[in-house]
Fold this protein.
Amino acid sequence: MRTTNSMLSRQLMSNLSLNYNKLMKHQAQVSTGKAFQRPSENPYNAVVMIDLRAKLGRIEQYKKNVTDAKAAVYDTELALTSINDSLIDIKALINRGLNGTYSLDERISMAEEISAIKESIVSQLNREFAGKYLFGGLNSSDTPLKISEGALSYNGEELLTMTEEEFIEFKNQKININISKGTDIDIALPAVEITGYGEDNMINVLDQLISELKKEAPDSQKILSLDEKNNKFISNIQNNISRQGGRTTRLEAMEKKLIDSEFNLKNLYSDIEGVDYEKAITDYKMAEMIYNAALAVGAQIIQPT
């Protein structure tokens, strides 16, 4: 079969188009730093990159959750430390109150100081963080401790009349934050866990102490009994401070793990998406040389008609 100029032209244009596409591909790699511009150029790696982006997105959310949880736990620990210091101050005042040499006026002054400390403790248990109440349990949008007609209530339930079942229900409320796949951490600490319930709740104990100190002849045995209850509150708070420290340690370990995972995934993503610039430039120069050579050869093969 005779080869015509038309056939040569078509073959030449086809080869030129192929070489030009290769040239443009390498040029795009050099200019963008990406191994491919469209998923169709490398379907397998495109799918892998989609999966990596999804994992990186989840890690970013986990990191945010860990950061928020750490801040809430730290703020809770600060509040507990303040309450612990307040109760230790009250213990010192109790010891002074047991001294029979103090006058009624001096003991009234001590009682007023304890009353101010009590208000500070309630304020700490109503502490807010990021618009939510730290010690509110599941009801974090409303003030947990409220005083109405002289009675103190937690989330609508009066502490003095709260039953054991209600206390356990409040105490066991959890606020779980997802910090990694399949891993949650509970950051809830309801105020009743600190105050207790019934007649021996912290606020009622402090009210009894205030009342006793204001008497002409305070009952030293009752004051000692109230002091023992105060010691139990201190011990409970210190245990909770330790638990908060444990939560912080766990969150910091998870944060490090997430940062390491993010670093590794980003490196893998970069390896798949990116190009070796030296190789890319070499390939581009080679493709450019081949294309120019094809143009030159084509000009000689296809004679003007």
Q: What stands out?
A: The helical segments are 5-32, 43-97, 104-125, 164-171, 192-195, 202-213, 220-273, 277-301.
